[in-house]
Amino acid sequence: MRRVVIVGFGLGGMGTARHTVEFVEDAKVAVIGDEKPYVRHKLRLIPSGEDISVSTRHLESDGVEFLEDHVIKVRRDQKEVELRSGKRIKYDFLVLATGANPSSLRKVPGSELTYGFRKKSDVDLLVDKNPSRVAIIGASYVALHIADVARSVGAEPVVIVRSRLIRRSLEPEISAYLEEKLREHGVKFAKGSPKEVKENGVLLDSGDFVEADMVYRATGVSPEITLASKCGLDLHEGWVINVDRQGRTSDPNVFALGDAAIIHDPLTNKPEYAGIGTAATIMSFNVAKAISGSKMTLRIPRYQKDVFLRGIHMISIGWTSPEAEKQGFNPERVEMSGKPGWGEKSYVVYDKSTSQVIGFSGIATERNMIREKGLEVLLAMLRRKKVGELISG
Ligand SMILES: Cc1cc2nc3c(=O)[nH]c(=O)nc-3n(C[C@H](O)[C@H](O)[C@H](O)COP(=O)(O)OP(=O)(O)OC[C@H]3O[C@@H](n4cnc5c(N)ncnc54)[C@H](O)[C@@H]3O)c2cc1C
To answer: 181, 192, 190: which is closest to 211 by C-alpha?
Structure first.
């Protein structure tokens, strides 16, 4: 019997439990998490009454044990974890799927007055406080989830943007178009960086003041590495758990995945931080395969699709042209805006030297109009297809 202990009830932890049951015949799986399982990327649907909880019934009937508790220590020499309740659990394989936390606002006075947005309790707090105006610092996907929730509770969201929306994942024209569409849905924007957060809003470096009853920060995440660093696992650049392509840490009996760990980019082959659900899901497959003894790994692309305010559909895949350039590619773009299936605005990015597809971003405001093309681009990118094959096909 192989005892597999998984820490975290998120996408990564739950996915690993499911795949371990599937691939490892003699596994005895225990999952420990400090929140009840739910779908994190659906948090914005809570105010409209949607049930986003995840049932553990099927896995429990397959023998998986769920413990609602917090792991306080990993003793690698004894292959055991210690829980806050005092319980100790032995493992043969440990999987750290501990996720991430909203990054703090460094060097901004008053940052302690801001809220993060990551957990169900964060949405409950926004609903309870019933604000009339919410300021959101940051222009990430999560910032737009907060704006979405604010709109659903009747508050006016003001997104404070330093450069442009979702800069690392969208072509510049798509950021601009997204901003236009969000304005039509009642989202306000303020340009600049926060200089100081006050009880009643945010002072910007431009001197403008954004009034708000609540201030959120959505400037990225910090991987939850407390357990990993305390038990001496190797960290990549000191801030995220280092793993190989199968998710194995510097200890062959300990795996890490999802928002707590790096991925290996399929285009550059370099370690990257993804912090997206797609990566957590694919990594959970790879980890379970590794525990089963298989060498098989799926590649992990940067792929994100999202829908805001129930009508704005976004997709981003691989590298944008500015990011591709930083990675050493020679990027060129083909505009596909308005072509059947390609959404209202979209660009395929390819490398001029090889013609290989290396990225895509697009926006559509009709339901699912762009989803299929997004999947075609994803496959083309992973199969190293040339741009001509993709757009003529
Ligand atoms: C608002 C929002 C919207 C998002 N939208 C999208 C989207 O549209 N598409 C997409 O791809 N991604 C999206 N993401 C990102 C996605 O949710 C994450 O990438 C994904 O949840 C990562 O899964 P995970 O299992 O690594 O971590 P998590 O989902 O964070 O789960 C980790 C869990 O481990 C628990 N934990 C941590 N330490 C311990 C411990 N010591 N003991 C016990 N439990 C512990 C944490 O409390 C948490 O419950 C979104 C994120 C947010 C916040």
So the answer is: 190
pLDDT single digits (tens) 14-52: 999 999 999 999 999 999 999 999 999 999 999 999 999
Sole residue written with tokens 């920060």 = 217
327-350, pLDDT tens digit by residue?
999 999 999 999 999 999 999 999
What is the rounded CA–CA span in Å between residue 98 and residue 215?
Answer: 26
List where CATH 3.30.390.30 sits in the chain. 311-391
Q: Which residues have CB under 8 Å from 57's CB, separation 6+?
A: none
Which residue is closest in CA terms to ligand 1's atom 18? 277
Structure tokens at 281: 């899901």
Q: What is the pLDDT of residue 368?
A: 66
32 pocket-lining for ligand 1 (C-beta < 6 Å):
yes
State the average pLDDT for the chain. 96
User: The domain 311-391 is classified under which CATH number: 3.40.50.620, 3.30.390.30, 3.90.650.10, 3.40.50.300?
Assistant: 3.30.390.30
Alpha helices in the chain (DSSP H): 11-23, 57-61, 120-129, 141-152, 172-184, 226-230, 277-292, 321-326, 371-382, 387-392
Q: What CATH number has the domain spanning 111-217?
A: 3.50.50.60
Which atom of ligand 1 is least distant from the CA of 12? 25
Q: Which atom of ligand 1 is nearest to the CA of 227?
A: 41
Residues shown for the chain: 393
Expressed in angstroms and rounded, the spacing between residue 197 Cα and the centre of ligand 1 is: 27
The CATH number fitting domain 2-101+221-292, selected from 1.10.10.10, 3.90.350.10, 3.50.50.60, 3.30.420.310: 3.50.50.60
DSSP notation for 370-383: THHHHHHHHHHHHT
Tens-place pLDDT, residues 284-320: 999 999 999 999 999 999 999 998 888 899 999 999 9
The reported pTM is 0.97
Distance (angstroms) between ligand 1 centre and the Cα of 277 equals 7
C-alpha 99 – ligand 1 centre gap (Å): 5
